[in-house]
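Lay summary. Proteins are chains of building blocks that fold into shapes, and those shapes determine what they do. In this project we predict the shape from the chain. Here is one chain we studied, written as its sequence of building blocks.
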Amino acid sequence: MALRDQAVFGPGSRGSLDEAGAEGREAAALAAAGVALEDDEEDDGRRGLLRWDGFSAWLHCVCVVGFDLELGQAVEVIYPQHCKLTDKEKTNICYLSFPDSNSGCLGDTQFCFRFRQSSGRRVSLHCLLDEFDKDLPVYLKKDPAYFYGYVYFRQVRDKTLKRGYFQKSLVLISKLPYIHFFHTVLKQIAPEYFEKNEPYLEAACNDVDRWPAPVPGKTLHLPIMGLVMKVRIPTCHDKPGTTQLTQQADTHTSIILPTVHEVDLFRCFCPVFLHSQMLWELVLLGEPLVVMAPSPSESSETVLALVNCISPLKYFSDFRPYFTIHDSEFKEYTTRTQAPPSVILGVTNPFFAKTLQHWPHIIRIGDLKPAGEIPKQVKVKKLKNLKTLDSKPGVYTSYKPYLNRDEEIIKQLQKGVQQKRPSEAQSVILRRYFLELTQSFIIPLERYVASLMPLQKSISPWKSPPQLRQFLPEEFMKTLEKTGPQLTSGIKGDWIGLYRQFLKSPNFDGWFKTRRKEMTHKLEALHLEALCEEDLLLWIQKHTEVETVDLVLKLKNKLVCN
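And here is the predicted shape, written in a compact code that computers can read:
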């Protein structure tokens, strides 16, 4: 498919808004709001940065995707102009930015997609992002191999156009998995962009370029086209399940976001909350899972809710909130010559009902209801009953859960439904339930892995740091009798069977590699600390010149590595 980029801004041109004008606009927004950037916020986010460095800390680029009668879906604008996308990436963005024709999305639709970065692309993440990434919770760290696309799609009748419809998407491309934040940004700028076109987009991008860096743990005030958003990016030191940003309204803030990444969990799980614990197991174990939905909004929200349900554990396999038959990984993920991969796919095209019918776990959902409306609870059904995308909603699987269903959480949520409890409150209850379930599962693993650390007294400054002991599955299983999940969870069932299956999963592999890296780094730091406390001059007097040179070289290498 031929694609085109229309250079709507001339080289070096600032359009109607020059740099000084953009600065004035931001200063006016902040001044009107009574917000002054803190000195360290200015240091972190602005000082010494080149043009577009601030923008690159948040976004890779902004794309406008339209429908061309000759070319089909086409990238009309990439902004800033210097941002590069390969032809393969442009093709993915084109198809993923539009709902399938069968979705019938009239009006405005928001959704999210995720796609693989081209292998030929040079990986060059923004220096600030690399610096701050280490302070993020593991589930919010960037994956250098993937981009996120945040879409605001508009389809309205227009008799002046040959097709009779205006169809266009404004798409934010970013490495950051801040779903709620970027959807909120789009909600503020996309409607006006469709009315005012490119000059408005350029002005919005100039505002983003003047944002402070996305520093975890800091309260950030982000002006965007006359509004000021107040956000806080979580840190790895935050207590899971809590928010550090106060909801107290102030005169200078237009929008307060209590979360940058979370979705409305209960709205997504509402049709299947009777089976939420089984779905938690499937996600935990990295099982192949397909979400068949009527639109990209429903598919992307549900996939993201599934990935989020094992937090604070990171989902280490691939997941695609919205996946189409044109995706560059379509053949790889739909082949029948091998077992389905460990991936969660969100699809809307009826073609997938046939193409993916060999997959072991399929969730078929209907339209997600607005807050306050409760859809009928779906049933677990046999896979052979799933023939088309028109099949009744349900969880199609032959999977037998390892754990007994927790009736308490179901009663609690059902009571909330009867009492018309707000969806936000239901989401808090469900998120806390998933958090406690995940923590009960992971604490015994954390405890056992901590025991693999050598004792501090075994660290000698004159020898290489001791190695971590090997993870022995059977040794770990023996610890569960006394220090297993029964200490923190009342849920009964085959916990040992669940652990055995988890140890074979990509999620365990990713989790253990991360923990082993952290512990190895800790050992290196303790070894260096032990060296610093020694009397080197005394040691040199007792050893040969060759041994001394060898020690100096080792020390130099260690300091460089740290």
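What the prediction tells us: Residues 423-450 form the longest helix (28 residues).
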